[in-house]
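ok posting inputs for the uridine-diphosphate-N-acetylglucosamine job
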Amino acid sequence: MADDYRSRIGRLIRDSRQHRGWTQSQLADALGSSQSAVHRIEHGQQNLSLEMIARIGEALDKQIVSLGQPGPTHLRVSGGQQLSGSIDVRSSKNASVALLCASLLNKGRTVLRGIARIEEVNRIIEVLESIGIRTRWLGERRDLEIVPPERLDLDSMDVEAARRTRSVIMFLGPLLHREHRFKLPYAGGCNLGTRTVEPHMSALRPFGLELKATGGYYHAEVDRKASPTRPIVLIERGDTVTENALMAAARNDGVTVIRNASSNYMVQDLCFFLTRLGVRIDGIGTTTLTVHGRSEIDVDVDYAPSEDPIEAMSLLAAAIVTSSEITVQRAPIEFLEIELALLEEMGLDYDRSAEYVAANGETRLVDLTVRPSLLRAPHDKIHPMPFPGLNIDNLPFFALIAATANGQTMIHDWVYENRAIYLTELTKLGGNVTLLDPHRVLVEGPTRWSGAEIICPPALRPAVVVLLAMLAAKGESVLRNVYVINRGYEDLAARLSVLGARIEPFRDI
Ligand SMILES: CC(=O)N[C@H]1[C@@H](OP(=O)(O)OP(=O)(O)OC[C@H]2O[C@@H](n3ccc(=O)[nH]c3=O)[C@H](O)[C@@H]2O)O[C@H](CO)[C@@H](O)[C@@H]1O
Ligand SMILES: C=C(OP(=O)(O)O)C(=O)O
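and the output
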């Protein structure tokens, strides 16, 4: 019996080590032990103390043994501290998930450099692995290698992981070239109200895809003889629908024109990646994309997705709400220009460095230094638009910034049915935020923030907005159940702590 447990724990340790891309010697170094001891542990030949199991878990960043289900993670924030220093923007959630899905187009080995280490990416990796794709973290755990099998095993799909994201909808475009018939679970993700899949269906129909939604699944049938005979006109300029159409077009043997395409940051990253796969795309960065597809893609490809403009905006908001001077390094300026123009109107004092190029060789980056400023409310309402408008995912941060400014600001989120509602959580921290209707909130500043205990709203950006307000609130706050934040941000609490924030993660016992 004891032997059996030792072997099972040993296997868990071996799997976690391999998932991290470490050798036995590397783990031994991290533990101050020897390679032969790690070998014995992994083969169940060594008695392990609880302390040793905890140390191994810490080294591998993975809980090896738990009593029951591990509970949710919460954050305790001691607010009112000014932040200082510099912080790098990490790669984007939205490009990372698109590129993971796009790897399904490639028979060769795909390496994604510096991909975001976030829960949303973890869920997609779990789905990919469950259908037979081998993934492995390389080097410093920032680069992901993806190797496809000869045939996918779609029936074994990890449905639980798939249902926790909306991104799995982007399997449709690549899969329609590999399978005649398949099913995908309904797309999940944040609770932002109903989000349509109709534009995806109409964009992919010309490629022969028919979808029926029943019993919690989209049932797909593909007519392989079909291919678009005229330009595909998207009924919405959505990001993931554009990506789905691009991925379908990438392996369509011929030229596909996509009109009313999104030219947002993640779409551009996907276009650059597809170009590396040998797919020519004209019109990158515009709303008409002309794709010269290839029926076979078998390339060993290496690509580094660009920095996340939404994370950059979040960090600017962190500086503004805490009246701090910080430098946000590696900000993708093309996707922040309108946000910065508006902040300038509101009175923000900031500098930007000369431009330099991201690791993808394309995206223009700058360093932004923000200084404490007295902000005033803008004259007009703030509302988002598809790129090149103010980014839809950046809008919630303007509610927080408006709460620090003098005067009244109307925030109009026409896009999501439910997202503006969560901004009223700021009232629990002393904000003056009135919900006028499900799409509009009126924010009156400036605010004297005060600490509170709040359960994370079930939406990524509003949850981060609440966390940032807690940084400004004097006294202690608690933010409960922060999975939703970890879905889209890498080590946010730890990285803000490096800037001087006092944030401590904890779990219920
Ligand atoms: C994985 C990923 O990349 N997610 C992003 C992507 O989701 P995604 O592309 O999946 O966004 P949706 O297709 O759900 O669009 C968001 C909402 O906007 C509406 N809509 C969209 C475009 C349009 O021209 N008209 C219109 O009405 C949709 O009906 C929907 O209600 O784009 C959203 C909007 O930028 C972002 O918030 C998400 O972070
Ligand atoms: C709404 C968002 O993303 P998703 O499409 O992954 O739900 C977001 O990033 O804020």
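notes: The first strand starts at residue 73 and ends at 79. The chain is about 35% helix and 25% strand.
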